[in-house]
Amino acid sequence: MPKQAHMADLQAEAAVANLMDALDNRPATHTFKVELICIVDTCNSGMFVSRTHKNNIVLPSFVGFHWAKRAFEWNYLRQYR
Ligand SMILES: Cc1cc2nc3c(=O)[nH]c(=O)nc-3n(C[C@H](O)[C@H](O)[C@H](O)COP(=O)(O)OP(=O)(O)OC[C@H]3O[C@@H](n4cnc5c(N)ncnc54)[C@H](O)[C@@H]3O)c2cc1C
Q1: 4: Cβ below 6 Å to ligand 1?
Q2: Residue 19: band (very low, low, confident or very high) from pLDDT cuts 50, 70, 90
Q3: How far is 81 from 46, CA to CA, in rounded Å?
Q4: Band of the pLDDT at 71, cuts 50, 70, 90?
Q5: Exposed, middle or buried: residue 39 (CB in 10 Å: 0-12, 13-18, 19+)?
Q6: Which band of pLDDT confidence, cut at 50, 70 and 90, is reported for residue 21?
Q7: CA distance 72 to 78
Q8: Does the beta carbon of 6 sit less than 6 angstroms from any atom of ligand 1?
Q9: Contact (CB, 8 A) for 37 and 50
Q10: Are 71 and 46 contacting, i.e. CB atoms less than 8 angstroms apart?
Q11: Does the C-beta of 38 come closer than 6 Å to ligand 1?
Q12: Which residue CA neighbors atom 4 of ligand 1 most closely?
């Protein structure tokens, strides 16, 4: 599995859902997708990479991906700030 925060998020959602089921005496059956989705950010550009069971995409370096990652980071982290 990818050693990636996206994977950690998917696993955490399944773990919490299973914990809630267990606490309610329901079978814990939640699983998670195994996938790699990221923007490799080089500060002045970035590459989009997606590897899932359905696709394998690597898009060429493009400055817009740097700004897309900055926007994602801002949106993702604001719930914790
Ligand atoms: C330099 C770097 C860049 C990365 N960039 C990206 C990226 O761009 N995109 C991406 O998706 N992923 C990235 N990753 C990977 C991502 O950071 C990890 O996959 C993700 O943080 C894993 O989350 P986690 O909650 O499983 O573990 P962690 O985030 O490592 O959290 C584990 C926590 O447990 C605490 N802990 C450990 N032992 C104990 C203990 N005995 N008692 C109490 N607390 C303990 C630690 O202090 C830590 O806070 C990067 C990783 C590194 C190192």
Answers
A1: yes
A2: very high
A3: 25
A4: very high
A5: buried
A6: very high
A7: 10
A8: yes
A9: yes
A10: no
A11: yes
A12: 4
Q: Which helix (H) or strand (E) holds 62?
A: none
pTM: 0.85
Radius of gyration of the chain (CA): 16
> Could you tell me the pLDDT band of residue 54, with boundaries at 50, 70 and 90?
very high
CA distance 2 to 4: 5
Instruction: Give me ligand 1 centre to Cα 4, in Å.
Output: 9
Assess contact for 69 and 41: CB atoms under 8 A: yes
Q: What is the DSSP string of 1-20?
A: ---SHHHHHHHHHHHHHHHH
Q: How far is the CA of 62 from the centre of ligand 1 (A)?
A: 27
CA–CA separation, 51 and 7 (whole Å):
12
